[in-house]
Amino acid sequence: MLQSAVRGFAGGGSKPKQIDPKCTDYDIIFVGGVNSTALAKFVQSNEFTKKKQLKMCVVSPQGKYMCPQLYFPVAHSHIGDLDLPSAAVNAQIENWSATEVGSKVTKIDPLTNSLDLSNGKKYTYKALVLAPGLDHSMDHIKGL
User: Fold this and answer.
1) Where are the alpha helices (DSSP H) in 11-80?
2) Per the CB 3.0–4.6 Å rule, which of 25, 36, 112, 122 could disulfide with 30?
3) Domain coordinates of the chain in residue numbers?
4) 39 pLDDT band (50/70/90 cuts)?
5) Residue 24 φ then ψ, to 5°
6) What is the pLDDT of residue 143?
7) Is 107 exposed, middle or buried (0-12, 13-18, 19+ CB in 10 A)?
8) How far apart are CA 114 and CA 59, in angstroms?
9) Superfamily of domain 23-131
10) What is the bridge-based pairing of β-strands 105-109 and 114-117?
11) Strand 114-117 vs strand 122-131: parallel, antiparallel, or unpaired?
12) Which of 117, 89, 116 is CA-nearest to residue 104?
């Protein structure tokens, strides 16, 4: 039996057109860090999403995050003083979706399906996904 890759050799094959950098209206906006990036990547891999060419955007204050293989050893202090950001948000998201890294959402208006970012940009959406994740550091807890 012969197997062949769906997209061809080494990820080749046709890909959706790159998103217009001036786009401000999206089908789905993911807000958060690692969780939103992972979820956006999962949604991008869906065939329905590809066929409909849904416009998506990831808004994340983080530009980089740790590899999942390193997350728990660092979070639980098995690996001590290492700061191991290893994956860029931009590298995880296909270029037919947008990323806004280094920005935070300052206002969400559910009545108009819009949000404002800390960099002054305003976006509208059909669906909004909030995936803020958890902060495992204890630096903000007084006395520890």
Assistant:
1) 34-44, 47-52, 68-75
2) 36
3) 23-131
4) confident
5) -130, -5
6) 63
7) exposed
8) 13
9) FAD/NAD(P)-binding domain (3.50.50.60)
10) antiparallel
11) antiparallel
12) 117
Beta strands 98-101; 105-109: pairing state:
unpaired
Q: What kind and span of H or E run contains 91?
A: helix 89-92
pLDDT band at 64 (very low <50, low <70, confident <90, very high): low
Residue matched to tokens 């949604």: 43
Q: Is the pLDDT of residue 125 over 80?
A: yes
CB-based contact 103:116 (threshold 8 Å): no
What is the C-alpha to C-alpha distance for residues 114 and 120, in angstroms, rounded to an integer?
13
Dist. CA 43–CA 116, nearest whole Å: 23
Q: What are phi and psi of 85, to 5 degrees?
A: -70, 125
Q: Which residue's entry shows tokens 């800390």?
A: 118
Q: Taking every pair of C-alpha atoms in the chain, what is the biggest distance, in angstroms?
A: 64
Residues, the chain: 144
**CB within 8 A of 29, min separation 6: which ones?**
56, 57, 58, 59, 115, 123, 125, 127, 128, 129
Average of per-residue pLDDT across 40-61: 85
